[in-house]
């Protein structure tokens, strides 16, 4: 049983990084559904695909984060709509849907990223 009240763990990925967004529902929620224009309240964990190194986690800060989807990376804008509150979803986001190609100025540019997202609320 998956405990949605604790920080998720991500297994080190095998094989080549995907070139397209991969969406995998770990737990399907039964609450309100996120829409493309929604503001979402989430807990999340992010790791680099190539190394498995964690680069960000709301769990480490001890509080969820509230974001308008339109202000997030394209991988989240495409990967969260359709998710329901109470769900946990894994997104594998290639560079063109994250922070762009290597040399784009962000420390994660050129990286394929893995996120595990718990949807806590939608407004």
Automatic annotation (TrEMBL):
Keyword vocabulary terms for this entry: Isomerase, Rotamase
Gene3D superfamilies reported in the protein's UniProt record: 3.10.50.40
E.C. code: 5.2.1.8
Superkingdom classification of source: Bacteria
Keyword match Repressor: no
Family matches, as InterPro entries: PPIase_dom_sf, PPIase_FKBP_dom
Catalytic activity of the protein: [protein]-peptidylproline (omega=180) = [protein]-peptidylproline (omega=0)
GO MF terms held by the record: peptidyl-prolyl cis-trans isomerase activity
Keyword Isomerase: yes
Residue ranges of every copy of the PPIase FKBP-type domain listed in the record: 37-123
SUPFAM superfamilies: FKBP-like
Broadest EC class assigned to this enzyme: isomerase
PANTHER family recorded: 39 KDA FK506-BINDING NUCLEAR PROTEIN, FKBP-TYPE PEPTIDYL-PROLYL CIS-TRANS ISOMERASE FKPA
Family listed: Belongs to the FKBP-type PPIase family.
Name of this protein: Peptidyl-prolyl cis-trans isomerase
Organism this protein belongs to: Cryobacterium roopkundense
Lineage: Bacteria, Bacillati, Actinomycetota, Actinomycetes, Micrococcales
